[in-house]
Predict the 3D structure of the following.
Amino acid sequence: MDYNGELNMNTKRTEYQSHLRVFLVLAAVLLGGCASPHYSATHEQVEQRIAAARTRADHQSLAQFFEQEAQESKKRAEKHRTMGKSFAIEGWGRGKAGIQARDHCETLVGLYEKAEQENRSLAALHRQLAAETSE
């Protein structure tokens, strides 16, 4: 591998580590108090899979995992978007409780949408790494 190729890989690793940090922070926020039955891997297991990823199949598997996480985040964002609208429709909107409930939902929508973006970005990165991996 020439110097440019090595530099390119280092840049990708740095980019990947940055995305991973953002993902883990968002995951901790989103999953900290409300673990769902779909979540089959612990953070430690995902970190281990990432650290051990060497083959095309490893990266493809991680890409699929992050796509599934993105889909879950998208569903949750939509669920909270709908709940936020229902608070206004069902008369919650007239007091402090209604405003707090809507604000809560709007905050979660933003967090879940950001988590979806980050998961899709990580999935794309792993697809790219899979394509560049010779094994």
Observations:
- The longest helix spans residues 96-132.
- DSSP finds four helices and no strands in the chain.
